Amino acid sequence: MPTTIRLADLAATEALAARAASLARPGDALLLDGPLGAGKSAFSRAFLRAAAGDPRLEVPSPTFTLVQQYELPRFQAWHFDLYRLSGPDDLFELGWEEVADGVALVEWPERLEDLRPADALGLRLAPDPADDEARFLTLEGWPDRLAALTEGFP
Ligand SMILES: Nc1ncnc2c1ncn2[C@@H]1O[C@H](COP(=O)(O)OP(=O)(O)O)[C@@H](O)[C@H]1O
Ligand SMILES: [Mg+2]
Predict the structure, then answer these.
(1) How far is residue 71 from each of residues 12, 16, 36, 49, 76, measured CA to CA in Å?
(2) 9 close to ligand 1 (CB < 6 Angstrom)
(3) pLDDT tens-digit map of 56-79
(4) Nearest CA to ligand 1 atom 3
């Protein structure tokens, strides 16, 4: 069952992303949907910084490289921005097969088509028309961890 929470501001998005990082384990995929400017990259940056234990970790946008890899204390992570991917076949050139052993953060996951992992955490960010700083986040997946992830969020 999908759950929707409200992220009142960027700090709330960062707190939720840090919570997700603490709950993540090798083999996970987090699929970030939502329009341009929704906060997919902001979520990814906060997730990676929390998982690294380094609030200043450089997190360049993978807009042009399509993927950035991170060696983190508990897992390797891959941050994908698939907006420019021509098709799922090109994923293998980006090392998609190795990703199964680590954690994948994927912006524009609809480009995965049939390669979308079945047990992924889906996160759909939507702007709140009433407030520029707020987002609605609909979460689906992680049945064993969803309650811990969203606890305390409205
Ligand atoms: N609650 C919020 N969550 C995430 N980003 C927010 C929020 N409020 C404002 N923002 C701003 O919205 C922008 C989101 O940009 P970005 O993360 O690059 O979006 P995307 O990757 O989805 O295109 C950033 O400038 C960020 O500071
Ligand atoms: Mg982005």
Answers:
(1) 25, 21, 27, 12, 5
(2) yes
(3) 999 999 999 999 999 999 999 999
(4) 10
